[in-house]
Specification:
This protein has 474 residues and is an alpha+beta fold. It is built from 15 helices and 14 strands. Helix 2 packs across helix 5, helix 6 crosses helix 7 and helix 6 packs across helix 14. The protein starts with 5 loop residues before the first helix and ends in a 10-residue tail after the last helix. The site of glycine (GLY) has 6 residues, from loops. Its EC number is 3.4.11.9.
Length: 474
């Protein structure tokens, strides 16, 4: 069920009350006699260290799940016996309200799916449950983590909205890649597309990696020149009302794939397609991840980068040298969402970094993000280890370092009979080529880059547009 019009679903309230009931059901499944209250604190306003400016505010996800409230300095209480929820919002008489006007209880009650709203001053300043005999701090956290795995329609609509916004950003970057000079111009284009559509926050820091930099999985520099590089890997996702999207595309910077990068692209796309085809309610994610490795090995054997017996290579885990991360993770309010039960201590290197272990339920959202990378820090030890080096043809591998890394990442809703893809950003190799090639002369932005601002014809053009041009000091 792809949500074709998320906006219409989002006209209602965030279903906080239903979430509270689900959480209690889960707790009661484990502790049948559980009674009393659920109590959660939201994120408090925090100042920067040694400064009076507030830190960037990010609502606590456990709190948002039970309230749908993005305000700072709030508390939430849910009385299990009476099924009554109360939101406590800050009362700040005499404050200057520099960031936003005060929210009244009546306004909050109209906006959020709770039964009552009071001021936080209606409870003691320093609430503590430590003195209570009958308390359980672990049960609520565990229950919310598990409940968050299966999304309701409202949550799916939020995620679809985030995905739609990100698709526009990915398209913009694709259209500008040929005219851009460096990675940061493209990051700026993605952020501009997000913010201008109302998405102020990103789900995570964008990865904008050109050429060999794409082999660094969590690349953060985003500031290298594009000239002379083969591909751009863009892993970027906007957030919408605390819900994430997480999308990766890899495409040729020149508009034309090299032979080697097209070969790797085709393998990764096949890894993704075959894995998506396996998805449905109850599928074992470990099996899907394994299938991605099988397709990778088949592809790398066909290219001659790997040599030998497919099963022996898989058993030796040699493909982990090229695909060193998990196939994907749950997605929701957090980019790496809760409930995946990873085992980072697993002795099996193929599964150690898999963020979800076990079966996927219908209604969960998972990323499918296979990749093949040519990262010398990761591959070198394999080349030096005789268990693995017998399966790697170093001479053939030599031709592929410039491919850097290819990853393709979509966001999938698991259904009873299959999966629905929320991600619409282009990934067909020929279409990618056409879209980037078409825009050879597209300006990077309506304002020219700083290095070119002072060139006479740029000055003339910008003056005609009414833009003020500042000349560098002579
Ligand atoms: N963008 C982070 C991830 O793909 O896991
Ligand atoms: Mn991801
Ligand atoms: Mn990602």
């Amino acid at each position: 069920m792809v949500i074709s019009s998320p906006e219409s679903v989002l006209e209602g309230k965030y279903p906080a009350k239903a979430h509270a009931r689900r959480v209690v059901d889960h707790i009661r499944g484990k502790l049948p006699d559980a009674t009393g209250v659920l109590y959660v604190e939201g994120r408090m306003t925090k100042l920067l260290e040694d400064n009076d400016e507030p830190e960037h505010f990010r609502q606590r996800r456990f709190f948002y799940y039970l309230t749908g409230c993005e305000l700072a300095d709030c508390y939430f209480l849910y009385d299990i016996a009476s099924d009554k929820s109360t939101l406590f919002i800050p009362h700040q008489p005499g404050q200057r309200h520099l960031e936003r006007p005060p929210v009244s209880p009546a306004e909050a009650l109209a906006k959020y799916d709770v039964d009552d709203v009071k001021f936080t001053t209606d409870v003691s300043d320093h609430i503590t449950f430590l003195g209570f005999d009958n308390k359980n701090f672990g049960a609520l956290k565990e229950a919310v983590e598990v409940c968050r795995v299966v999304k309701d329609d409202y949550e799916l609509a939020l995620m679809q909205k985030a995905n739609n916004i990100s698709a526009v950003g990915h398209k913009l970057v694709l259209e500008r890649v040929r005219a851009a000079k460096n990675e940061q111009e493209l990051q700026a284009a993605f952020l501009a597309a997000s913010v201008s559509q109302g998405a102020k926050n990103q789900s995570y820091s964008s990865i904008v990696a050109s050429g060999r930099a794409a082999a660094t999985l969590h690349y953060v520099r985003n500031d290298l020149p594009l000239e002379g590089k083969l591909n751009l890997l863009l892993d970027a996702g906007a957030e919408w009302s605390c819900y994430a999207s997480d999308i990766t595309r890899t495409f040729p910077i020149s508009g034309k794939f090299s032979k080697e990068s097209r070969e790797i692209y085709d393998i990764v796309l096949r890894m993704q397609e075959e894995c998506i085809a396996m998805l449905k309610d109850g599928v074992l994610w470990d099996d899907v991840h394994y299938r991605a490795h099988e397709v990778a090995v088949e592809g790398l054997l066909a290219l001659g980068i790997l040599k030998g017996d497919k099963k022996a290579i898989l058993d030796a885990r040699t493909s982990v040298a090229f695909f060193p991360h998990g196939l994907g993770h749950y997605l929701g309010m957090d980019t790496h969402d809760t409930g995946g039960n990873p085992n980072y201590e697993d002795k099996d290197t193929m599964f150690r970094y898999l963020r979800v272990r076990g079966r996927l339920p219908a209604g969960s959202v998972i990323t499918v993000e296979p990749g093949i990378y040519f990262c010398n820090f990761i591959i070198e030890p394999y080349l030096k280890d005789s268990v693995h080096s017998q399966y790697i043809d170093a001479a053939v591998l030599e031709r592929y370092w410039d491919v850097g890394g290819v990853r393709i990442e979509d966001n999938l809703i698991i259904t009873s009979s299959g999966a629905e893809n929320m991600t619409t950003a282009i990934k067909d190799a020929d279409e990618l080529k056409r879209s980037s090639a078409r825009n050879k002369r597209a300006p990077v932005s309506s304002i020219d880059s700083p290095e070119t601002l002072w060139i006479p014809e740029v000055i003339k053009r910008n003056t005609a547009r009414g833009l003020q041009v500042l000349r560098p000091q002579e």
